[in-house]
Amino acid sequence: MYQVRKTSRSEFIPLRNLRYHVRTWGQPQARQAPLVLVHGWMDVGASFQFMVDALQQERHIIAPDWRGFGLTDAGGADNYFFPDYLADLDFLIDHFSPDAPVDLLGHSMGGNIAMVYAGVRPARIRRLVNLEGFGLAATHPKQAAGRYAKWMDELKGLHRGELQLRPYDSLAGVVARLMKTNPRLARDDAGRHKAEWLAQHWAREEAQPDGTSRWQVLGEPAHKISNAQLYRVDEVLDIYRRITAPVLAVEATDNSLQKWWGGSYTLEQYHERLKSVPQVQTAVIDDAGHMLHHDQPGALARLIEDFLGKH
Q1: Cα torsion at 116, 236, 52, 41 (round to 10°)?
Q2: What is the DSSP letter of 219?
């Protein structure tokens, strides 16, 4: 099993009528901004443990589980709207750092949230790190009617029980799933030990009506429903222009955009969008895929600390 170097604390805070789970490391430091880490889709705050362990500097680190993920309440939602993540983050930052800006790091979906939040609340962010938060492919107004129809159809499917997250018969099954998603975790014993550790935070054992137990991923099926509203690139770019914090945009050598979008949205287009950010630098992590904080936590930690420290 992976040996944790820096022990975290698990706490729950009331946030927007939800019981929000937050994992924290370290203690508040005088004259040092707390570092807030926000995870991606179908992930949890504990996912950052390997990167946190690799950081050299002691600091106060805060990693929530987004609503409907991990141990945070879902609030009875049958779908999730992007603006709610922004408001959740706003309330969370006010809770932990009411009088001073924070350093913010987001991965994937969390990176998209962090970029938009930094443009909407520029005074609340000191430095921003975006880990493969690429945004989405451009849309067109003529797609709106079809998108709303798809959203409503998927809602009906959810209520009919058609959208589910697969349960696993054992913890070993969860580990195998994590290694299938990220083959680098299966390359050696160190990677497998990480997968074993992650599995215990990514899923939990739950009793079944027949008296058996199965391991269930800690995410709500409603997260699988398409966003009802289109992704409007012109709005996003205007928000990017309002970011005042220096931004570090990190990507892995594996081209996730090609895998996901098949050419309809490319790295070149993403880099073009980044030109709207007033202060931005880019970096690439070698021998890493989308879960770069699992694949190369040491290299990523050095990159992050250099960026946060030199400003």
Answers
A1: 100
A2: B
List, in sequence order, every residue forming a beta bridge with 203; answer none if it has no partner. 217
Provide the token pair at 12: 């729950």
Gap between the Cα atoms of 73 and 54, Å rounded: 30
DSSP, collapsed to helix, strand or coil, labels residue 303 as helix
Each residue's pLDDT tens digit, 255-276: 999 999 999 999 999 999 999 9
Q: What would the DSSP string read from start to end of 50-74? A: HHHHH--S---EEEEPPTTBTTS--
Cβ of 192: how many Cβ atoms within 10 Å? 17
User: Measured between alpha carbons, how far is 277 from 248 in angstroms, rounded to an integer?
Assistant: 10
Q: At what angle do helices 171-181 and 189-202 cross, to 10 degrees?
A: 120
Tokens 């990190």, residue?
A: 250
Task: Give the separation between CA 270 and CA 4, rounded to whole angstroms.
Answer: 35
∠ at Cα 135 (132, 138), nearest 5°? 145
Rg (CA), the chain: 19
pLDDT at 310: 59
Phi, psi dihedrals of residue 307, rounded to the nearest 5°: -65, -45
Helix (H) or strand (E) run with residue 164 in it: none
- Helix, strand or coil for residue 109? helix
Angle at 88 between CA 104 and CA 159, to 5 degrees: 130
Residue pair 28/43 in contact (Cβ under 8 Å)? The answer is no
Number of neighbouring beta carbons within 10 Å of residue 27: 10
In the block, residue with structure tokens 């929530």? 64
Residue 54's pLDDT band (boundaries 50, 70, 90)? very high
The helix (run of H) or strand (run of E) holding residue 273 is: helix 267-274
Q: What's the pTM value of the predicted model, to 2 decimals?
A: 0.97
Task: Encode pLDDT of 199-229 as tens digits.
Answer: 999 999 999 888 889 999 999 999 999 999 9
Q: Confirm if 286 and 254 have CB atoms less than 8 A apart.
A: no
